[in-house]
Amino acid sequence: MAYKIDKSKCIGCHSCMAVCPMMAISVDADGKCVIDPAKCVSCGTCASVCPVSAIAPAN
Ligand code: SF4
Ligand code: SF4
What we know:
Blueprint: E1 3-5, H1 15-19, E2 25-27, E3 33-35, H2 45-49, E4 55-57
Antiparallel strand pairs: 1-4, 2-3
One iron/sulfur cluster binds next to α1.
C-alpha cells in the first residue's frame, strides 16, 4: 500500500518531495506532486508535512 496525493487539495508547495526518504515524489506536468506507488514505503513523512492535508494512505 502506498500513500496518495489528492490533487484537488495540493497547492504545489513541494514540501512533501523534499522530505521523502525514498525519493518517491516528483512534480507532475500540472506543477502538483505525485507519488510513485512502486517506490513509496508508506512511512507517512510526506503526509506529516503537507500544509493542506492532501496526502493519505491509498485504499
Ligand atoms: S509515505 Fe513515505 S515513502 Fe511514501 S511518498 Fe510519503 S514520504 Fe515517501
Ligand atoms: S506537501 Fe501537500 S500541498 Fe505541498 S506539494 Fe506535497 S501534496 Fe501538495
